[in-house]
Every structure is written in structure tokens, then in C-alpha cells.
Write a structure and sequence with these properties.
InterPro entries: ClpP/crotonase-like_dom_sf. By secondary structure, this protein is mainly α. It contains 4 helices and no strands. The chain is flat. It starts with a helix and ends with a helix.
Length: about 70
């Protein structure tokens, strides 16, 4: 079970710092919020992530890999 937690932590830490920070913030506040409030916060966080430089760079890297694969 601990190895599973380590694997999950490794996977999460390799992702977007913005996404991880927003997720941690929502989780920390979730005990004081209703389910609908948690979902609303998640929606806001998603909007922030989609407009971040990290997201743009990830999309560009994906498109570059797809272009290379087609050649």
C-alpha cells in the first residue's frame, strides 16, 4: 500500500505545478465546503490550468510528437 502511495506521489509530482497546487488547495478546503462548492472550485481550477503556460507548452509538445510520428 505504501508503494502505491509513493507511485501516485511520483506521478503527481511530475505533472503541472499549478494543477498540483490548486488540487491541494481544494482538498484542504473541501472539508469545510459542500459538494457543489468543491465542484465549482474544481471548475475554476480547470479554467486556470487550461490558460497556463504549462498547459500551452504541454499541448505544443504533444503536437510536436504527433507531427514527428506522422513523418
Amino acid at each position: 500500500m505504501l508503494s502505491t502511495a509513493h507511485a501516485m506521489a511520483d506521478e503527481m509530482s511530475s505533472g503541472s505545478r499549478t494543477a498540483v497546487a490548486l488540487t491541494k488547495s481544494i482538498i484542504n478546503k473541501s472539508y469545510e465546503m459542500s459538494e457543489s462548492q468543491v465542484f465549482a472550485e474544481g471548475s475554476k481550477a480547470q479554467g486556470i490550468c487550461y490558460t497556463s503556460e504549462e498547459h500551452r507548452a504541454s499541448v505544443q509538445a504533444f503536437l510536436d510528437r504527433m507531427k514527428e510520428a506522422q513523418q
